[in-house]
Amino acid sequence: MNPNLDRLHPYPFEKLAELKAGAEPPADRKHIPLSIGEPRHAPPAIVLDTLRETLPEIARYPATKGEPALRQAMAGWLSRRFNLADGLLDPETNVLPVAGTREALFAIAQAVVDRDTGDQPPVVLMPNPFYQIYEGAALLAGAEPYYYPTLPENGFLPDFEAVPESIWQRAQLLYVCSPGNPSGAVIDAERYRHLLAKARRHDVVVAADECYSEIYFDEDAPPTGLLEVAATRDGDDPFENVIVFHSLSKRSNLPGLRSGLVAGDAALLKRFLRYRTYQGCALPLPTQLASITAWNDEAHVRANRAFYREKFDAVLEILEPVAGIDVHRPDAGFYLWAGVEGDERDFARQLFAEQNITVLPGRFLSREADGVNPGAGFVRMALVAELDDCVEAAKRIRAMLS
């Protein structure tokens, strides 16, 4: 067996199951799970219609590179959404379909990381707290994870200047998540420019997980994307060592479709396609054709944002005045990263035992680094359930704290 398998940490939801073990929630209260970021809104009907109509295409082998029409739809959406000049993003070379961002975020480390670096292993940088796939991808690629903190005193934004020079010199890949999971903090263009300049000096690939980018609260102020910042750089290839990840799971409420995209550096994607061809992750043709419909439609995405806006308004009205929990509207995304008093694991267990609500303790999403665990004292609440359930959960939290 690959010895690096033994370096993998238990997944957050394994730890959560252990934490809840033995607790007996009240049987007369419906369970409301706020722990998993699985969208619960209805999938768009136009996508489901396309999926039904194209099911006979399941009889054909799909190409790993995807249908040209799919790559054109993806490149078109990226160009419109991130204000890219016509023709800057080539559907033939700058875009690939993937089976959801989780699969691709893991796979990119296996393709990018060069293990043959001498006495010290290569480094993969990642935010802390973080999506655990980043860490697992680094470990199984034979790399050493380096956790850069995203702390409340910095607005939960990364401080790339605080990463030691010795780490940058060994770094090969850097994961960044904006809007952030779990905080919802959005990295601004200036911070991205500083990151890209530093990454270019050290020849580091920047992998931007932007799967929450389409859930935001001001229709006139969508989150900044890495591609639009990279497009303003000097050089022959503005996307050099830049790759971004987007998904239909959150944007279009299609988590089970397992459809997303990667875009950016053409040379990197050419090698990544070779890796993926051997890995065998081609999207079934009905999935590809349904994805074309989804990427080409914005009406359902705007409606989706309105649903989340309504839920955040209602939940924050209930919880913001409550002592014992510190909640604020995030920049984007569907998580509340809530500060609680004492050990957040005790809060989560009590909430489950007394109110039959499940939330995720922050330290299950983070690692201690330099003596600090940035997830301690926080719980993550995913407002993915229907409005009535989210409101009911907020009322029960308020009752427990009162």
Automatic annotation (TrEMBL):
| SUPFAM superfamilies listed in its UniProt record | PLP-dependent transferases
- Superkingdom of this entry's organism? Bacteria
Domain Aminotransferase class I/classII large: start-end pairs: 30-385
Q: What is its EC number?
A: 2.6.1.17
Q: Name one Pfam family in it.
A: Aminotran_1_2
Cofactor dependency: pyridoxal 5'-phosphate
What InterPro entries has UniProt attached to this entry?
Aminotransferase_I/II_large (IPR004839), DapC_beta/gammaproteobac (IPR019878), LL-DAP_aminotransferase (IPR050881), PyrdxlP-dep_Trfase (IPR015424), PyrdxlP-dep_Trfase_major (IPR015421), PyrdxlP-dep_Trfase_small (IPR015422)
Q: Name one GO molecular function term.
A: succinyldiaminopimelate transaminase activity
Please state what class of enzyme this protein is: transferase
Keywords per UniProt: Aminotransferase, Transferase
Protein name from the UniProt record: Succinyldiaminopimelate transaminase
The organism's lineage is:
Bacteria, Pseudomonadati, Pseudomonadota, Gammaproteobacteria, Chromatiales
> Which gene does this sequence derive from?
dapC
